[in-house]
Amino acid sequence: MNLRELLEEREKRFGKAKQLRNDVTKEKRELTDVESAEIDGLLNDVRTIDQLIDEKRSAEREGRSEQRNQSFTELEARTHAPAPIVRGVEPQNQDMRDETNNFERYSLLRAIQLRSQGLPLDGFEAEVSQEIATRTGRDPQGFFIPSDLPVDHRSREHRSFTATTGAGAIPTNLSSTLIGSLRNRMLLTQLGVTVIDGIVGELDIPKQTGNTTAYWLGEAGEPTESEPTIGQLELRAKTVGAYTDITRRLMNQTSLQAENFVRNDLVQTLSIESDRAALNGSGASNQPTGLLQTGSLPLVAIGTNGGALTYPHVVEMETKVAAANADMGNLAYVATAGGRGTMKVTERFTGTSGKTIWADDNTINGYQALATNQLPTNLTKGTGENLHPLIFGDWSAIVIGYWSGIDVMVDPYSKSKSGGVRVVVLLDMDVKIRHVESFAAIVDFDPAA
Questions:
Q1: DSSP state of 282
Q2: CA atoms within 13 A on the CB side of 323
Q3: Are strands 229-235 and 170-175 parallel, antiparallel or unpaired?
Q4: What kind and span of H or E run contains 318?
Q5: How confident is the model over 14-55, as pLDDT tens digits?
Q6: Which end of the chain is more exposed for a tag (fewer CB within 10 A), N or C?
Q7: What Rg value do the Cα atoms of the chain yield, rounded?
Q8: CA-CA distances (angstroms) from residue 77 to 73, 97, 169, 210?
Q9: How far is CA 232 from CA 16, 206, 207, 304, 434, in A?
Q10: Which residues contact 137 (CB under 8 A, 6 or more apart)?
Q11: CATH assignment of 178-211+224-449, given 3.30.2400.10, 3.40.50.720, 3.30.450.40, 3.100.10.20?
Q12: At 122, is the secondary structure helix, strand, or coil?
């Protein structure tokens, strides 16, 4: 078995042992001899698999160490030889590879160039991919990059001087920032959702679904036996993918801005779609089930066919969350851009010329309020169309799990006539709502009413 298979087998056996124990606990009885023997056997298997996993990881570390030593030997032998150039990008200096790992020296463009020419990854980019593969027990179809690979948004300004006749050496400010596309705003990381990285196999998170009951007793009375009930949040990998075409000229660039442009295009595309899925994933066609699509989501209705939002509707949303003992944590409102615009000109109480529902400090009734185009604007109810949602709740109750880094595959053939390459990126993730009672939503808000 390879490392990935061992990790999956461990998860399977340990999960079965936990399930047997939980079943007996729910039935409020002792284990039978047969059940005890089965659980003991499963746990012994897990211990054995753990030893094999440790041996596999140790062997891989030794193998990488030997490979690194061999690289040193080869580099020393070629100290005075000219360094090869990969389509305009110089290989990273060996001394830099041995410094503290930081992503200022990571070049996604260089990795793409190497793979587009059929060459294996080397240097820091190879080490990062190998480390992610080792930690997750998964082999990439291309190569791994971290799902949180940073993108430098700092704008650097260059100044050139024109010395032509009559110009008088007038300085001209030139921005080195490449022009990106306008994208939907990512919100969930700002709102403090719960993120779990580096998942291996299937992950079940215990969830308390019922509480122990307290009783008032007489002098000789005894409380009735009660126990909290435990459920599970089941995170199961779902794959989101995208691709982009990189032109020959862009790929030959060595500037930091070109590097950041490619990182931004690839990483943020997946991040934005993960964000949208957590808010409104359909739960079908391999998508996670997002918050708005969760069937038991508490709702506040405006009308049979939808209608205008009023301040009492907002208060009712907060009341629903408080009544479920969930008015704690990262409480905030999220609306559409159109909904925000309407609430900014809608008075809390009509005719009083008072405060608007959406305050100037971007709050609603004292809670943080944010707007995004990730939410749908085409909801229907009765004869109402183009209705918008409004959500309030504790955003830490959303759990987003990631299985590995982003898997990058380079296709040098689709754009071979123009000298460009197609880059495909894949990310495994899932979304679960820890307590849907932590939210309340309106789904029939008509900003035009």
A1: B
A2: 8
A3: unpaired
A4: helix 311-323
A5: 888 888 888 888 888 888 888 888 888 888 888 888 888 777
A6: N
A7: 28
A8: 6, 18, 50, 68
A9: 14, 5, 5, 36, 9
A10: 2, 3, 4, 6, 7, 8, 200
A11: 3.30.2400.10
A12: coil
Query: Bridge-partner residues for 331, per DSSP?
Result: 394
Closest to 402 (Cα-Cα) out of 71, 148, 226: 148
Place of tokens 């608007």: 356
Q: What is the pLDDT of residues 339-349, one digit of tens each?
A: 999 999 999 98
- The alpha carbon of residue 8 and the mean position of all alpha carbons in its chain are separated, in whole angstroms, by 22
Q: Rounded to whole angstroms, how far apart are CA atoms 209 and 190?
A: 28
Q: Which helix (H) or strand (E) holds 390?
A: strand 384-394
**Do 395 and 188 contact (CB within 8 A), yes or no?**
yes
The structure tokens listed for 386 are 């183009």
pLDDT exceeds 90 at position 82? no
pLDDT 10s digits, 117-174: 888 888 888 888 888 888 777 788 899 988 766 655 443 333 333 333 343 333 333 3
**Both tokens assigned to 434:** 């820890």
Start-to-end CA distance of the chain, whole Å, equals 63
Question: Among 103, 1, 92, 118, which residue's Cα sits nearest to residue 49?
Answer: 1
Q: How far apart are CA 294 and CA 433, in angstroms?
A: 8
Q: Which of 81, 78, 58 minimizes the C-alpha distance to 70?
A: 78
What DSSP line would sit under 391-405, residue for residue? EEEEGGGEEEEE-SS
- Report the C-alpha gap between 237 and 225 in whole angstroms: 39
Q: Would you kindly state where each structural domain of the chain is located, as residue ranges?
A: 3-140, 178-211+224-449
Residue pair 356/344 in contact by the 8 Å Cβ criterion:
yes
Q: Which residues are CB-contacts of 155 (< 8 A; sequence separation ≥ 6)?
A: 175, 176, 177
Residue 298 CA to residue 153 CA, distance in Å, equals 39
Stated as kind and residue range, the H or E segment containing 170 is: strand 170-175
In this model, does residue 59 exceed pLDDT 80? Answer: no
- Exposed, middle or buried, 411 (CB in 10 Å: 0-12/13-18/19+)? middle
Name the nearest CA neighbour of 342 among 358, 323, 324. Answer: 358
